[in-house]
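hi! just following up on the protien thing from before. the input was this:
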Amino acid sequence: MAVKYTKLFRKECEGKFGLTRPIVKDAIAKPDREQRLESQGLTIVMYSKKLKRGDYVIISAHAEKEDLMIDLAFRVKERFVKDAKTDLPFPLMRALAYKLGLPIRVGEQESKFIYNEVIPVSGADIKKAVRIPNPEKHPLISAIWVRMLQNNMGALAQCALVFCIDAKKYRAWLRG
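and the predicted 3d structure came back as:
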């Protein structure tokens, strides 16, 4: 499986957060932890690895045909991982989203992290079904893996993984 880097990763994670491809490649080749989610015909793979300096990296990727597409990567402090009491990637990403994320509204449900849920919505338009209020207009980094469904009960949002990190707060947190 070839490893490829999405535009989002290159622009945000590599460009602004300094997470290099060698760091990511090593974490994928020799992860401390790996978790997979199969949903909607989509395979999401997350990795976590402790880095030499003690910090950790969390990587979010998805399988696309024969390729592993690297979507996002975040460096988190060792203290954060200890406080979270886990080094599993999905729970770490959830903890990061709850600490530095913005609430996301899908239908009438609001959360900072939505994982493998089907949520009733008012219509099949994804732009109306999924909303991220951002009154301070901070830069955002989000993963929105949602498929819209329609059945006899109405419209549904099948959410594989949905979260949104406030990039300004994240950068400040890393420096602090």
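The two ends are 37 Å apart (CA to CA).
The CA atoms of residues 44 and 62 lie 4 Å apart.
cheers
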